[in-house]
Amino acid sequence: MMIEASSPAKAILFGEHSVVYGEPAIAVALDRRISIKVTQSSESRVDGGRLSMRRHRYVRWALGNLWDGPPLDIRTRSYIPSASGLGSSAALSCSVAAALRRLKGDNIIEHAAGDAFDIEYNVQGGASPTDTSCSSHGGGVLVDINKGEDHLWSLSKGERTWHVHDIEPPEMTIVVGYTRKPSVTPIQVKKVRGFYDRSGFARETVKEMGVLAMDALKAIKNGDIVRIGELMNKNHSLLSILGVSCRELQSLVDASSPHSYGSKLTGAGGGGSMIALTDEPDKVAESIKKRGGVPYIVNVSMVGTETHGSEMTIS
Prior knowledge:
By secondary structure, the protein is an alpha+beta fold. Helices cover 39% and strands 27% of the residues. A hairpin with a 2-residue loop joins strand 7 and strand 8. Helix 2 packs across helix 4 (130-137). The relative contact order is 0.20.
């Protein structure tokens, strides 16, 4: 018995942080992936070692809460830097969730997306389904509290329900600039929460990000790359106001700007990565490298989570 699963990285184009407060967010899957192989074992292991409370939090939670079968050996292979703002934990969660579903004879991606959201939400102490839904589905997604056209699925936590929609992004070349500084999502989410709770200005900024995301949706549907870039720049400024940019991110954003339609941090911030929308990827990559960042030239991946292998009967 062996199951293979893989899921893509993601980049949030618009709406990170504000989506937690009910504003829309737009994300696209990227053509860098995490893959796993799952086999039955005498004890549960990850990459040849016993489950670690610190290193294997997402797998531990999944096996402890979503699996009631025999012990499993999980081998991982990643082309996504960890703590980079590119959704490595989401891609891992999606792959593990889909593999466990496949083992139980359930190949419905919507179910695996819900499981992956549960994994991230519980391990991180809170999350929106943006990352896991984008990684599960591939292509582009709009996450909103309002249900609209091209609806895929809905996910709820407490009193909040998010509706996930399919969007068709135009052909885009994106350069990722990884700062080499880890982005710790819970820390950044907590920082924004404190600012949001005590400041009307922060709440207005979050609402403005929501309006901007819906403007961006129109530009995406029209294939207006120039407008998308302009709105990315504005989104970065709003995220800076919320306090989630940093010197390293700003340096890479500034370096990429002369050769980009737009650039911004992506993900939780405080480190991690920025993205630049460009038709001069080599020049952007070189500029990022000169500033000490690690560049990755990527494209949107239309392929979400995939699984291969055979189901098993759980005794």
